[in-house]
Amino acid sequence: QVQLVESGGGLVQPGGSLRLSCAASERIYNIYLMGWYRQAPGKQRELVAQITWSGNTDYADSVKGRFTISRDNANNTIHLQMNSLTLEDTAVYYCNARGEMGSWGQGTQVTVSS
């Protein structure tokens, strides 16, 4: 299975921005679906955003208009640009390849706090 390593998490104030990155151990141009999930304390893991190999995207309603997912096939990386962050965005963010039965990264913590 492809290995995934996330980076870019951290502490940010409400209204701030962060950019998460996920580096894959193999070429991603032939991986149909990649995405970001998150899990907040005491809650189930939820889909945040996903992107197909053709660039079609889908977002959770809670992040539409604020988050942007992108993929860089040349560098085997996907990104999640997060703007206008709120307290409710605090969670561990996981990179995923090939859907929930596919491969997962270890996660990166995003904390939104004043």
What is the rounded Rg? 13 Å
List low-pLDDT spans. Answer: none
Note the run of SSEs as H and E: EEEEEEEEEEE
What portion of the residues fall into strands of 2 or more residues? over 45%
Q: What is the percent of helical residues? A: under 10%
Structural class: mainly beta
Report mean pLDDT, rounded to a whole number. 96
Which geometry do the CA atoms define? globular
Instruction: Count the beta strands.
Output: 11
Straight-line distance between termini: 39 Å
Count of DSSP H/I helices: 0
Largest sheet: 7 strands, mixed
How would you describe the overall organization of this protein?
The protein is mainly β and 114 residues long. Helix content is 0%, strand content 50%. It contains no helices and eleven strands. It has strands spanning 4-7, 10-12, 18-24, 33-39, 46-52, 57-59, 67-72, 77-82, 91-97, 103-104, 108-112. Strands 2, 4, 5, 6, 9, 10 and 11 form a seven-stranded mixed β-sheet that branches. Strands 1-3-8-7 form a four-stranded antiparallel β-sheet, with no helix packed on it. The relative contact order is 0.33. The mean pLDDT is 96.
